[in-house]
Design a protein that fits this description.
The protein has a single domain, classed as Up-down Bundle (Cytochrome C Oxidase, Chain A), CATH 1.20.210.10. It has helices at 14-37, 48-77, 85-109, 112-137, 145-173, 179-211, 218-241, 244-270, 279-303, 311-350, 359-362, 365-387, 389-431. It is built from 13 helices and no strands. The chain is globular.
Length: 432
């Protein structure tokens, strides 16, 4: 089941594009930070450099692209027209970038003022976006699983931002809170309630559309976001009430739900009509396999809590789930969304009189394949760095920075071609 797409509601190309071009820069920063600090990043998730690196990637890379994609997706998929999308994009993009840098700097230097400033910038930015999205979604009927998922993802974003602000305030003012449980809950809301639900909502549309698979079955599509949010709400209640057994049960439920969704997506991909695997397919295959592996780790830790006491387990889980799962999903979608949007806007520019070039002329497969190989090498080195940090951490950081710089270069080339074709189309129209 898919939502009906309304491309006439699409915002200007510049609105989502600024996020897509900014995000790889934070990936480069994250890789350089790992290369600079080295093995200490892999020692514990509580290391200052580890916290800084985590937020450079989750906010600077992942959140940038997710919110940029939503500025495009909300009006096209849900019919929710955001007010002044270019202004909103500029404000949100700058706020996220500034907030991520301040927060990372605060963690690195253990500076409460920087942490507070970063949290304030991010809280304000997220609030602006959520208010704009709520206004746009108000009155929009929930006619598809995608629309339902987008609405529930907004709740997930509010949850992760609220918990993040609480944690920063607790650190700055020394509040007595269950820090470990709240950090786990913050990660759960971010990765499952926000990232997982949004990823599923978008997948319901883009996987059948771009990967030429059958549509997702209706019942799992409707229930997946609700199961994830329900598990997170119960988990939150368990933390507030001090019920560790219920918290572990909710983690296990969220892991099982995610595994089922990943397996269902793999089954649909096996039925795709496109025989030759493209870069998006390869990225999604990596993301699905890594996500299943990481969720099995999460389920194991839920039923055997002692295993997560090993700091190497937590680092490996984060690397596999984010660098192996979420980020490949994101890059795979970007490699379809950017050339498609460029082609769509060129079609509109041509006014049905001058045809737009094919998408593979705007973003050639060979360029994407080269970047994909660089990212695969970087992920393999990151995985090895979890086991042998002294030998592989620094080289993994360099490789990850290179892969993200390559991603930025690939997207910049696509935008350059888009602008060149825009000029050519306008010249041809003027000559008619």
């Amino acid at each position: 089941m898919q939502a009906l797409l309304s491309f006439e509601n699409a915002p200007p190309f510049a609105a989502p594009l600024r996020f897509f071009l900014t995000a790889p820069a934070f990936g480069v920063l994250g890789g350089l930070l790992l290369a600079w600090v080295g093995a200490d990043v892999m020692a514990s998730r509580w290391m200052p450099a580890t916290l800084a690196l985590t937020h450079l990637i989750t906010i600077g890379f992942m959140l940038q692209i997710m919110l940029g994609a939503l500025i495009q997706i909300l009006p096209v998929v849900a019919g929710a027209n955001l007010p002044q999308p270019l202004v909103l994009a500029r404000v949100v993009n700058i706020g996220l970038s500034l907030g991520a840098l301040l927060l990372a700097g605060g963690f690195l230097d253990s500076q409460p003022r920087l942490l507070g400033a970063g949290a304030g910038a991010l809280g304000l930015t997220a609030s602006i976006f959520l208010l704009a999205a709520a206004q746009a979604l108000r009155g929009v009927p929930t006619t598809s699983p995608t629309t339902r998922g987008l609405k529930l993802a907004m709740l997930g974003l509010g949850g992760v931002v609220g918990l993040g602000l609480l944690l920063v305030l607790a650190l700055v003012f020394g509040w007595n809170v269950p820090l470990l449980q709240l950090v786990d809950l913050h990660a759960g809301w971010g990765l499952a309630g926000w990232g997982g639900v949004l990823l599923a909502a978008v997948a319901f549309v883009v996987v059948p559309m771009f990967q030429l698979t059958p549509g997702y079955p209706a019942k799992p599509s409707w229930w997946f976001p609700r199961l994830i949010l329900g598990a997170l709400l119960l988990w939150t209640l368990a933390v507030l009430a001090g019920w560790p057994a219920l918290a572990a049960l909710c983690q296990a439920l969220a892991a099982i739900t995610g595994i089922v969704f990943a397996l269902l997506t793999m089954r649909l991909q096996s039925l795709r009509r496109r025989a030759r695997p493209d870069v998006t397919y390869r990225y999604w295959q990596l993301g699905l396999v890594a996500a299943i592996f990481a969720l099995i780790m999460l389920f194991t830790a839920a039923v055997m809590p002692g295993i997560a006491d090993d700091p190497r387990w937590t680092i490996a889980f984060g690397v596999i789930l984010m660098a192996g799962g979420f980020i490949p999903f994101i890059i795979g979608m970007i490699y379809k969304i950017v050339p498609f949007l460029a082609w769509l806007h060129l079609q509109n520019c041509g006014q049905a009189k001058v045809p737009a070039p094919a998408m593979n002329k705007l973003l050639p497969d060979a360029e994407m394949q080269a970047q994909w190989r660089s990212y695969l090498v970087a992920f393999m080195l990151l995985a090895l760095a979890c086991l042998f940090p002294d030998s592989f951490a620094r080289v993994a950081g360099v490789a990850y920075a290179v892969a993200n710089a390559w991603l930025m270069l690939t997207l910049v080339r696509a935008i350059r071609r888009y602008r060149q074709h825009t000029v050519l189309i306008l010249e041809k129209l003027a000559a008619r």
